[in-house]
């Protein structure tokens, strides 16, 4: 059977510099967890960071909802979006947990596999050529990484172990003037639904003195790397 051609979505930004209605509709139609207001804040950060001419990296692809926005911002900037995931799901997405979606289970092996859905999402949005998917564990990939990044978006595992390792592994690669974006930051334990590890990572970034707060939208926090020193390599 011939492959379905990638649709030609209109990619012209809207009047405020946000995503085109087609790209926004693709984001909203994709499986995932990010509300639209946070998606628009992520998009604005990615467009701004794209001006550095460096790749934009996401930890936590899932089915590609937020990746659509990073990919479109990368396309506009002429850079590449990178997205890291082992595609086996986070703790709260496993069978029996609140955020489990049975459609994400590979029936042959009985484990979650969000990679096929992610690939379909990106194909339907016409953005495949702007994205490199890195399939594996975030700390293992970060340990091999040696390229400065314009933006790092942390939306992977929500335990202290995983969120802390994502920060330790990827934040050093954010270039001076680049942005660190953290999702699911809940300062009040009453609002938490997947734990407060991302909030602790946010506090850690601020306390390091290496990042300064830029914006708050829902549970999304944008920080900028300050200073003039070159980012750590390797
Ligand atoms: C909250 S979801 C990401 C949601 C996505 N950004 C969106 O907008 O829909 C978290 C993802 O992180 C992945 N993940 C969790 N821990 C990881 C790790 N240590 N390494 C790689 N991926 C991980 C899970 O497989 C899951 O797909």
TrEMBL record:
Gene3D superfamilies: Vaccinia Virus protein VP39 (3.40.50.150). Residues 1-13 have a biased composition (Low complexity). Keywords: Methyltransferase, Transferase. InterPro entries: SAM-dependent_MTases_sf (IPR029063). It comes from Streptomyces mexicanus. One of its GO terms (molecular function) is methyltransferase activity. This is Class I SAM-dependent methyltransferase. GO terms for cellular component: plasma membrane. Residues 1-21 are annotated as: Disordered. SUPFAM superfamilies: S-adenosyl-L-methionine-dependent methyltransferases. GO terms for biological process: DIM/DIP cell wall layer assembly; methylation.
